[in-house]
Amino acid sequence: MSSPAAPAAVATPEAGRRRWLVLATVALAQLMVVLDATIVNIALPSAQAELGFSDNDRQWIVTAYALAFGSLLLLGGRLSDMFGRRRMFLVGLIGFAAASALGGAAPSFELLVAARALQGVFGAVLAPAALSVLTTTFTIPKERARAFGVFGAIAGMGGAIGLLLGGYLTENLDWRWNLYVNVVIAAVALVAGTVLLPRAGGAAGHRLDVPGVLLGSVGLFALVFGFSQAEPQGWDSALTWGPLVASVLLLVGFVVRQRTAANAVLPLYVVLDRDRGASFLAILVAGSGMFGVFLFLTYYLQSTLGYTPMRTGLAFLPMVVSIIVTAQVQSNVLIPRFGPKVLVPIGMLLAAGAMLSFQALEVDSTYVHVLPGLVLMGVGMASIMPASFQLATLGVPPRLAGAASALVSTSQQVGGAIGTALLNTLAATAATAYVTTHAPATPEVMAAAALHSFDTAYAWSAVIFTGGAVLAAVLFRTRGDREARTAGTAAPEAALVAH
């Protein structure tokens, strides 16, 4: 009996070390996908000067990535379940690196937009595969909490890191390095992933539900596209409301299809569980509201305070540090003790408080006035993301880990698209109204109008987070309820074993 036990004792520490190396690999890939939503923003003026595209066309460099990424995530998650997480993770890395290299070398605006769309396609393959690897690798509750603490922190701080890295690369190298840097990151993750990830196969016997994929993907595309057109076209434009109406019809059709499809892209019980549904909603709200920081605070620092791109990126560093520290405290100490029903609403309210603190900023404010809100925002995001990421995939069978993981990324992406559209529109409307009532439009009036538009965005972001706090408090189960349900499902299994 002793001989079998010995190898297990020796193998366990090695398996433990391997799991944490897998986490590092997956986290690196996730960071690359998340920061690419913002890293190119700072490079846009330099890219525009070199390639000569118009202000009206500029948005497509950001939108192309968001459209492809957001609309194909459900398909990417299903492919991960069908063909294996390791295989799709590596395919996603190679494709993302190739698309990034193509974009970095792009001689024209059209090729740059195409490369950004291709990045989104492979990002939609990579992101669900990365999270589903994590879901199936970490099954011990304590280790799972720590791993998702890291992963959730990256989701919360990726945009800020994108601004920091984008500022550095644009100022010290060239705007093209905002894309080339992905080749370096992907190469490291590819080598590590090839060595570390287990060669588990997928459920290839399952067929792809093509009608479901088309309904879901086209519906999400129309949703993201409609919101992306709200600011440049206006809410009364057919280019805005037309796609939004179409998206509602297509996504309703998708839900109906998932109820009857033999091989559903997203089995509805994954979403209808209260804890998982609340988690998806919390991630969507956080993705929507946090754009009040990344978008409008960036404008404030650069246009009002005159910061350079590099200095703007560095300004967000305290937020990144507070996310990292708080996420680990939350995952290891607070989440096991209090649970998401307490911590996620608190995180939402802290984020709302951060937004309200930004409303106190004036034309002549200094960074000292910005700093408390950034730290508060970091603590808030780190209270929302790790807990929500943990429960969003908890209890999902391994064969559906890709589908659940895809919905996590979809929630974050769609939340960002909705937040950008709504806050941009509200801010632009506020600025126009301010200039109209304070004519003539002197430089002082224009500066005050910009500040007023930022304040409007912060106020509405605070409203979004406050609403999210209420929903999270109502929807998440209590710890006792969750434990009772777990014990209830375990009891019949124990009875069967006893007999």
Structural class: mainly alpha
Largest β-sheet summary: none
Strand content: under 5%
Give the CATH level 1 class.
Answer: Mainly Alpha
Tell me the radius of gyration.
23 Å
Distance linking N and C termini:
26 Å
Instruction: Tell me the total number of β-strands.
Output: 0
SSE arrangement:
Layout: H1 2-35, H2 39-51, H3 55-83, H4 85-104, H5 109-137, H6 141-172, H7 177-196, H8 210-228, H9 230-233, H10 238-260, H11 268-272, H12 274-289, H13 291-304, H14 309-315, H15 317-338, H16 340-358, H17 367-393, H18 401-437, H19 443-475, H20 479-498
Helix pairs in contact: 1-5, 1-6, 1-7, 2-3, 2-6, 3-4, 3-5, 3-8, 3-18, 4-5, 4-7, 5-18, 6-14, 6-15, 6-17, 8-10, 8-18, 12-17, 12-18, 12-19, 13-19, 15-16, 15-17, 16-17, 16-19, 18-19
Characterise the protein shown here.
- The protein is mainly alpha-helical.
- The chain has one domain: Up-down Bundle (Growth Hormone, Chain: A), CATH 1.20.1250.20.
- Helices cover 85% and strands 0% of the residues.
- Helix 15 crosses helix 17 (367-393).
- The protein is globular, with a radius of gyration of 23 Å.
- The two termini are 26 Å apart.
- 53% of the residues are buried.
Produce a short descriptive summary.
This protein is an all-alpha fold and 499 residues long. It is built from 20 helices and no strands.
